[in-house]
From TrEMBL:
PANTHER family: O-SUCCINYLBENZOATE SYNTHASE, O-SUCCINYLBENZOATE SYNTHASE-RELATED. Residues 140-233 form the Mandelate racemase/muconate lactonizing enzyme C-terminal domain. This is Dipeptide epimerase. GO terms for biological process: amino acid catabolic process. It comes from Natrialba swarupiae.
């Protein structure tokens, strides 16, 4: 068998500037990967590199030739374990670049088998759930307006970015605007352990499902300090990168937030889900600012999750790819009428 591979960098402007505690983004860069078999079937994947984890579009482009050489050498897309092992031997970091190749291979394999990806894994599309919609940081009135727009658009689960000196005011305004919504909040490492405990104590009255990454990942003792004192469940995101982190966070949080762009591929994500469950953690799958080219594959893991935060493509002004439909935020795998991940470049 022979496989041909190509990749392409794309700049994607956001619908509106997106702010978290670490800064503001107006545009995101992704790199799409295509792997074509001898019948002309195309597998599509994409990297959405995050500078927080040491990657940019340029670093992805720098390592993709090595990774795709492995794919061409092995030549058989069904040899996922062999290809992923050899890619890790060549390039140990660069998780979003490896994820792009992993998802393109999964897309190609399941297109060759003419089934959607979730059927390849034997998952039940009825066990799906709804994605949260993220409200980025802004002045409180604008965050209230964004909340109103999200509720009007049908989203029942909202994730609110925090890490300001008016976090309680923000959550109060959002809870008033969306009294029935399920609410997550995400501090993106902004608080000290003591600030986190004080703030979460004050936020508890607003009925939050969990508080994500209250303190920096470099402070695991601080995470445990908050976890042991918090009246609200705690989720770990920046503290939870690969499967090796699961035992490290198990007695420091309630929810593990995995992302394909952190862990390096769909197979690693599945290992993390199993490991997290074995450690008694709930599982959320999150995302970066991403196109449907990489959100669609993530959607196929929905039946294995407790929470999905897969709204990256909803925050773009214009997505070059179509993916899995999310009417009213619900990840609708059942409605997917094509094989593979469902990601299609326009
Ligand atoms: Mg987060």
């Amino acid at each position: 068998m022979s496989l041909e591979t190509t990749f392409k960098r794309r700049s994607l402007p956001l619908d509106r500037p997106f702010t978290i505690s670490r800064g503001t983004t107006t545009e995101t860069e992704i790199v799409t990967v295509e792997i074509v078999d001898e019948d002309g079937t195309v597998g599509l994947g994409a990297a959405a590199p995050a500078s927080h984890y040491g990657e940019t579009a340029a670093t992805v482009e720098a390592v993709l030739p090595d990774l795709l050489e492995v794919v061409e050498d092995v030549g058989d897309p069904h040899q996922l374990a062999r290809i992923e092992r050899r890619m890790r031997e060549r390039v140990n970091r660069n998780p979003s670049a490896r994820t792009a190749v992993s998802t393109a291979l999964h897309d190609l394999v399941t297109k060759r088998l003419e089934i959607p990806l979730y059927r390849y894994w034997g998952l039940d599309p009825a066990e799906t759930l709804e994605t949260s919609f993220t409200i980025g940081l802004d002045d409180t009135e604008t965050m209230r307006e964004k909340t109103e727009a999200a509720v009007d658009a049908g989203y029942g689960t909202l994730k609110v970015k925090l890490g300001t000196d008016r976090d309680v005011e923000i959550v109060r305004a959002i809870r008033e605007t969306a009294p029935d919504a399920r609410l997550f909040v995400d501090a993106n490492e902004a608080w000290t352990p003591r600030e986190a405990v004080e703030t979460i104590d004050r936020l508890a009255e607003f009925d939050l499902a969990f508080v994500e990454q209250p303190v920096p990942a470099e402070n695991p003792d601080g995470l445990r300090f908050v976890y042991e004192r918090s009246p609200v469940p705690i989720a770990a995101d920046e503290s939870c990168v690969t499967v090796a982190d699961i035992p490290r966070i198990a007695d420091r949080c309630d929810v593990a937030n995995l992302k394909l762009m952190k862990c390096g591929g769909l197979r690693e994500a599945r290992r993390m889900i199993h490991a997290a469950r074995a450690h008694g953690l709930e599982v959320m799958l999150g995302c970066m600012l991403e196109s449907n080219a990489s959100i669609a594959p993530a959607c196929h893991l929905a039946p294995t999750l407790d929470y999905a935060d897969l709204d990256g493509a909803l925050l773009l002004a214009d997505d070059p790819a179509e993916g899995v439909g999310t009417p009213d935020g619900r990840i609708d795998l059942d409605a997917l009428d094509r094989p593979g991940t469902g990601a299609v470049l326009e």
